[in-house]
Amino acid sequence: xxxxxxxxxxxxxxxxxxxxxxxxxxxxxxxxxxxxxxxxxxxxxxxxxxxxxxxxxxxxxxxxxxxxxxxxxxxxxxxxxxxxxxxxxxxxxxxxxxxxxxxxxxxxxxxxxxxxxxxxxxxxxxxxxxxxxxxxxxxxxxxxxxxxxxxxxxxxxxxxxxxxxxxxxxxxxxxxxxxxxxxxxxxxxxxxxxxxxxxxxxxxxxxxxxxxxxxxxxxxxxxxxxxxxxxxxxxxxxxxxxxxxxxxxxxxxxxxxxxxxxxxxxxxxxxxxxxxxxxxxxxxxxxxxxxxxxxxxxxxxxxxxxxxxxxxxxxxxxxxxxxxxxxxxxxxxxxxx
Length: 337
Hints:
The protein is mostly helical. The protein is 59% helix and 3% strand. It has helices spanning 10-23, 30-50, 55-65, 71-87, 89-93, 101-111, 115-134, 161-189, 193-198, 230-245, 260-270, 286-299, 302-309, 315-321, 329-336; strands at 204-205, 210-213, 224-227. The chain has a 3-stranded antiparallel beta sheet. A hairpin with a 4-residue loop joins strand 1 (204-205) and strand 2 (210-213). The chain is elongated, with a radius of gyration of 30 Å.
């Protein structure tokens, strides 16, 4: 039988005896005590590392772990991150635990001069700091103490009946039934442009007369059903009949035509909207604003309009969307006929 011999110094022997004596009352073995000591050392090093996490590193990890978000949302976050890195490099290199509300405010002022951009940047900062708190990289969220910028909402007029008619004719001329259906969903159902691009024929139920804006399509992530009004029904029915006649009636095909963005520019340009001399500037969300304004003028039901548009409260409708100036009752009746 093999024999093993271990040589230890007198100092090591005394430390071993002392350690055994200390552990005798605890019930722990020397091996157990060593494991506990190693675990605490790992925790200490991890805590020390956490104290040195910079904002840029936290942002990178945050974006990586949010990879399930839509490509457009991630693209917006990355764009905001690049703006911060370019305009406030010292802020991005600083450790999370050293940053104050004043640091956050200065970085936002430098990176986002416009109020609406600054509001989005502040939302990103708050999200990153909350994420870092869950990771135990910091103990507080200094961005929460930064007051949000005041945004003065510009008045966006609803489109006039003749402008609506011109857009519908232009859409059909430029892209056929599919382009007209894309326009119709935004105009008569208040569907957001990005939501419309995700909708397929499977999301339309003409028997029930609803469009299902599912979670995969919705901007907010919450599904909703939007009513199909008579003018939209006629547009979608025509598309359905044309697709069936071509043998393309299978559900699941995107409603918007290919190369929609280019076609949409041409549709508007044909009606006088563009960036050239003498051309009108297209108001952002003009179709959604038009839908909301004509809806309330005709039906006078703010609660149902809120549901149709997918808003959590009517506050945004009153502050930004509703502008019935210049819309007569006859105009509203004609719009929904």
